[in-house]
Write a structure and sequence with these properties.
Layout (H helix, E strand, L loop, with lengths): L5 H16 L9 H5 L6 H7 L3 H9 L5 H19 L2 E4 L1 H16 L11 E5 L26 H8 L3 E6 L33 H8 L5 E6 L5 H7 L2 E4 L19 E6 L2 H11 L17 H5 L8 E2 L10 H17 L3 E3 L14 H13 L5 H11 L10 H17 L9 E5 L8 H9 L28 H6 L3 E8 L5 E7 L5 H14 L34 H4 L1
Parallel strand pairs: 2-3, 2-4, 7-8, 7-9
Antiparallel strand pairs: 1-3, 4-6, 5-6, 5-10, 9-11, 10-11
């Protein structure tokens, strides 16, 4: 094992301070700075690359300690977080203190559960007592909760170690992940590309081997979109299965919290420790405890699949090709495709009014202290643009009624088939500079897009959430798993979904597909000397005008 010197220990803990000050330097790092990056011990690289399930087995076999796992991650975080910018706050001291307690329990043969001693990352909209929770917004940059979110209490009780707080799209209101007070999280497969959002840091950290498991939230696709674009696995469970109390809301009635990891079995293991009724969460629903790992191993031979046609419209060719190939694999594993599976044919209710309700009070207290590219969206809450009709209480009530009806009836649409299979996203991830330039051209409503949009071309500039968002309104479980790569090496995701509380079947089919392929084993080409490309705010990558952040790299 590596020797942990005082100097190295201080360097690890200093990573937390680095995350605090990183915002000022996130646009680019010079080549000379890359050359000075510290080396990572081989033992740390090996440990960090293992799956959550693998290290859980090692902890229970007493062949590795929690302290060793934390230190291995801190070694990699120290080198790679400045590149991918996935952590907002690294809780190094707290994680090592937790590990010491859990190691003592391990030595005594006392294990709290399968997550005992496993470092987990939290999206930074999930409250942690005594550690700031920012929602990636300047409004909350100094916000320190006094209580843990219910899901954090559950994770700690199960023995999980909280490794740190992960980057996100500001207030979780975006599918790109590029708008954050702390700078965009970067995609480990190509540092000049978006991760997808809003759980950007969660997917990026997993892909870069900087954490074993992470929590994300999903309101329109915020777990599944970044999972697809970063080549990881993400599960949005049934609405209310996992408590959202203590999580900064995006749109409360359609908010979900779920596990993100590198493999399907990791997500199954995590979900078993996350699910449970919370009487203080008005959206929580009673549920029976389920062994999701056991459910994951059930046979899928009798499963009939549906492929709803509307989810395959306007799909980019390389995604279409990869998904068709994945379907051929699934057809060979199951009873095949039984239906075109038409799902809810109206626009599902999506909680209109929830976001305004929450942010109205924030604006009254803090003003419009949002990131510039998000400010227009929030400014219209109290000052709608001329000629527009602001949402009323009647609109919100009507929308919530439609949402309730949708969720009550959606299961009946699974008639003659067990699960649906669709592309997770219809588009490939954009470059960060291109995405920011498009966001800067947002129309007066503050929605992504731009004044150059054509009516017939509205899919082209869309985010990643076109396919994912209906499943949040449906409130049913949906998982994204890797199913291929584009010609330029960017991951592609496949989404599997089923009726309420069918997590076992969803996980089983995802696991069967994972076992039949090797997409989840691919590693991003991220190295200690990888140069971080500059950010040109509001300028697409083909813009040739000088950029102040690129001067160092031009030397």
């Amino acid at each position: 094992m590596m020797k942990l010197t005082r100097r190295r220990f201080n360097g690890m803990i200093g990573t937390a301070l680095l995350a605090e000050t990183f915002a000022a330097a996130w646009p680019a790092m010079s080549k000379s700075a890359m050359a000075d990056a510290p080396a990572i011990p081989v033992e740390s690289d090996k440990l960090a690359s293992l799956s959550l399930t693998e290290v859980s087995e090692m902890v229970h076999a007493r062949t590795v300690t929690s302290t060793q796992l934390v230190k291995a991650l801190l070694d990699r975080i120290n080198v790679y977080n400045p590149k991918v910018n996935c952590y907002i706050t690294v809780m190094g001291k707290e994680a090592l203190a937790q590990a010491e307690v859990l190691d003592a329990e391990q030595k005594a043969g006392k294990f709290r559960g399968p997550l005992h001693g496993i470092p987990i990352g939290l999206k930074d909209n999930i409250d942690t007592a005594g550690t700031r929770t920012t929602a990636a917004s300047p409004m909350f940059k100094d916000r320190v909760p006094t209580e843990d979110a219910d899901i954090v209490v559950r994770l700690k009780k199960s023995g999980a170690i909280i490794m740190g707080k992960l980057n996100l799209h500001e207030f979780a209101l975006g599918c790109t992940g590029d708008i954050s007070y702390f700078g965009p999280a970067r995609n480990p497969w190509a540092l000049d590309h978006v991760t997808g959002g809003s759980s950007s840091g969660s997917a990026s950290a997993l892909s870069a081997d900087l954490v074993y498991g992470a929590l994300g939230t999903d309101t329109g696709g915020s777990i599944r979109c970044p999972s697809a674009w970063c080549g990881t696995v993400g599960l949005k469970p049934t609405a209310g299965l996992v408590s959202i109390r203590g999580i900064i809301p995006c749109r409360a009635s359609v908010d979900h919290c779920g596990p993100m990891a590198r493999t399907v079995e990791d997500c199954a293991l995590m979900l078993g420790q996350m699910a449970g009724y919370d009487p203080l969460d008005i959206f929580s629903v009673p549920s029976t405890p389920v062994d999701y790992v056991k459910e994951m191993h059930q046979s899928v031979k009798s499963f009939c699949l549906g492929t709803p046609a509307s989810f395959y419209d306007h799909v980019e060719p390389e995604i279409e090709k990869a998904v068709k190939a994945a379907l051929e694999v699934l057809i060979g594993l199951t009873a095949g495709v039984a239906s075109s599976a038409p799902l809810w044919d109206g626009l599902p209710g999506n909680g209109v009014g929830d976001t305004d309700f929450y942010h109205h009070d924030l604006i009254q207290k803090y003003g419009l202290n949002y990131m510039p590219l998000d400010r227009a969206r929030f400014a219209r809450i109290d000052n709608p643009p001329a000629g527009t009709k602001p949402a009323t209480a009647a609109d919100a009530a009507r929308d919530h009624q439609l949402l309730a009806t949708t969720r009550r009836l959606i299961d009946s649409h699974f008639n003659g088939f067990d699960l649906v299979v669709v592309p997770t996203t219809r588009q490939n991830p954009a470059k960060i500079n291109d995405s920011l330039a498009r966001e800067a051209k947002a129309n007066p409503s503050g929605e992504p897009g731009g004044s150059d949009n054509k009516v017939y071309d509205w899919f082209a500039p869309g985010g990643g959430c076109t396919n994912t968002s209906p499943f949040d309104a449906y409130g049913i479980p949906a998982i994204s798993v890797p199913c291929g790569f584009t010609s330029n090496g960017m991951p592609i995701g496949l989404m599997i979904a089923g009726p309420h509380f069918s997590e076992g079947k969803v996980l089983a089919l995802a696991y069967a597909y994972q076992q039949a392929t090797d997409w989840h084993k691919r590693q991003p080409p991220l190295k200690p000397d990888t140069v971080v490309p500059p950010i040109k705010e509001g300028k697409p990558d083909d813009d040739k005008s000088p950029d102040k952040n690129s001067k160092e790299d031009e030397k």
